[in-house]
Amino acid sequence: MGRKSLAEERRPQILEAFYRCLTEKGIEGCTLASIAREANMTTSLISHYFANKEQLSLELIHWILEMHEEFFFKPIEAIEDPDERLERLLAIYFSDELPSEDYTRAYIAMVYWSGINEDVHEAMRKANERYYAALSNVLMEADRSGRLTPEEAETIAVSISALTDGLWAHWFMVPEKAHPSTGMNMVRTYLDVVLGRGE
């Protein structure tokens, strides 16, 4: 295998520097100059690979999605039993492995940026749709009652995702009271009823 090109080496370095910058300064305080300092590069070199902060933000979302692909989706691919797959997915959703303090800061910054930038908003929307679809499919496969509709599965998936996001944010602000795992038993009890798993 040949050596990586400069672009293949530098673009991830810049994205990692942008990620670190977001965790320290937020989206508005994270200028190209501060990203360049964090990456130990010149501003002109950053601009050579990324035209502006918007492009950096879009690339960062895809970079985070790749990380999520490994964390969220790869572990459930090999699991055939629907109940086991659902349990594993819930364990991942309510785990404290991913939502570190740095990750939560970066995520909050990206949510803020998506509120004022249409392209970033669309990228975040598509990312969320990916999670909704994955969880909806697992819910439909695990439904023993036969009563769950695709629309209801999607509503539940959105609600679980929203609960997780809220718990992560609260965990960041009030760590002693809002650990992500606090939602696990509540959601599992609800799903047992909805999916007929206790029947």
Give a structural overview.
Helix content is 76%, strand content 0%. The protein has 199 residues and is an all-alpha fold. It folds into two domains: 1-50, Orthogonal Bundle (Arc Repressor Mutant, subunit A); 53-194, Tetracycline Repressor, domain 2, CATH 1.10.357.10. The protein is elongated, with a radius of gyration of 19 Å. The model has no long low-confidence stretch (mean pLDDT 83).
In short:
The chain has helices spanning 6-29, 32-39, 43-49, 53-77, 82-93, 101-116, 118-142, 150-173, 184-194. The chain has 199 residues and is an all-alpha fold. It folds into 2 domains: 1-50, Homeodomain-like (Arc Repressor Mutant, subunit A); 53-194, Orthogonal Bundle (Tetracycline Repressor, domain 2).
Search tags:
2 domains, 199 residues, single chain
Q: Work out the helicity level.
A: over 70%
Q: What is the CA-based Rg, rounded?
A: 19 Å
Low-confidence stretches: none
H/E element string? HHHHHHHHH
- Summed up, the helix count is 9
Question: Biggest β-sheet: count, sense, barrel?
Answer: none
* CATH topology label of the largest domain: Tetracycline Repressor, domain 2
Question: Based on DSSP secondary structure assignment, what is the total number of beta strands?
Answer: 0
**Mean of pLDDT:** 83
